[in-house]
Automatic annotation (TrEMBL):
Record note on quaternary structure: Homodimer.
Cofactor(s) named in the record: Mg(2+); Mn(2+)
Species for this entry: Rivihabitans pingtungensis
Modified residues (N6-succinyllysine): 98
Name of this protein: Isocitrate dehydrogenase [NADP]
PANTHER family on file: ISOCITRATE DEHYDROGENASE [NADP]
Amino acid sequence: MTTSHITVPQGGQKIVPGQAIPDNPIIPFIEGDGIGIDITPVMIKVVDAAVSKAYNNSKKIHWMEIYAGEKSTRVYGGDVWLPEETMAALKDYVVSIKGPMTTPVGGGIRSLNVALRQELDLYVCLRPVRYFTGVPSPLKRPDLTDMVIFRENTEDIYAGIEWQAETDGAKKLINFLQTEMGVKKIRFPETSGIGIKPVSKQGTERLVRKAIQYAIDNDRKSVTIVHKGNIMKFTEGGFRDWAYDLAKNEFGAQLVDGGPWCKFTNPKTGKDVIVKDAIADAFLQQILLRPAEYDVIATCNLNGDYISDALAAQVGGIGIAPGANLSDSVAMFEATHGTAPKYAGLDKVNPGSLILSAEMMLRHMGWTEAADLIISSMEKAIGDKVVTYDFARLMDGATEVSCSAFGDAMIERM
Ligand SMILES: NC(=O)C1=CN([C@@H]2O[C@H](COP(=O)(O)OP(=O)(O)OC[C@H]3O[C@@H](n4cnc5c(N)ncnc54)[C@H](OP(=O)(O)O)[C@@H]3O)[C@@H](O)[C@H]2O)C=CC1
Ligand SMILES: O=C(O)CCC(=O)C(=O)O
Ligand SMILES: [Mg+2]
């Protein structure tokens, strides 16, 4: 493979796990497809301004562009969507941020986003959902929505283990299921595409452990296991049972009123933490009607994907929904939304989601003063009704600004 399209920035230092974050860390970034070209430079400009202001120029991120997706095919040529040196850099530099990447529907390449999460074993997809005062929302009380989603990021049907209808692979698997496994319920075997949904005890436990620990560390009142275990008994149902077992075995949770809900005392606050569960369809209506009853959410991959966008809509849309993909050693931050192709290159969309993902990154690095500046300046810009099109179309008296002008509006308010 051709290598060395990556230029390591002069004067920057690598973040080394277990050591203090240097004042001049090298942070790899992937620009992203579609609106990546609009939002990524704005994110970098806003973060640089916040860091410079917060630390009086004594700290500075050294950004290192690495490539994946469509830009990678232009830089590396032909079919190179995810170069080896990109994977190596993401592992080696430990903390990174990425724009969205396109995944074609039906045929074509499989999701590069999913490939990154699987290959780096970024098993937690962490997506906090909170309300910013002034953001237009379809709810009467959007401020009651304050949840943190822990979406399992490496397993489930989302992983794409599937065979196209009428191919040798689909025929072979369907034949195996019918002849060796006694399966009689495939309604149209000749024309079925077929997929496999792996959900494991280990995968569930490591995700739920992080969710419960987050509730402890952040004084949250409950963890809700969201699943469809009534129908998919051994995958989603397994997820629910393993999650409850973990709460009991590792955190000492005791049954509430005979169960299945349980609770334990937060060792840091002395308060109760409730561990409960909800079936995914009912959960989706309850978060709209009774959002205050939900707090930390732990769920399988596909449920987490749906819930992320639904919850984001409650607090103003995916234009400001941030996220992180985490393993025990690597953290890769990214927006919840996709490449929104119809807006690509128009300098129009909301850069808030990627900027708030960078805010999570700064907090992860312990650069809380810069993170706080990002939050406060975004609150001020929205409070002044200086917003991008997505908010402006729902707000009375708003000043609609471009993607880059919204970044500038934040910087002016730091
Ligand atoms: N992690 C990743 O990289 C992700 C990648 N994708 C990929 O992105 C591609 C497009 O997916 P699609 O389903 O259209 O979903 P998108 O999230 O890209 O866009 C859907 C709609 O959400 C709104 N939106 C998205 N981003 C913003 C923003 N920054 N500011 C304001 N509004 C925004 C727009 O709404 P409106 O039209 O109302 O203005 C847009 O049309 C697909 O290939 C998909 O696979 C999808 C999700 C995540
Ligand atoms: O990989 C993709 O294209 C979609 C990913 C997605 O929707 C998500 O991560 O929320
Ligand atoms: Mg999604």
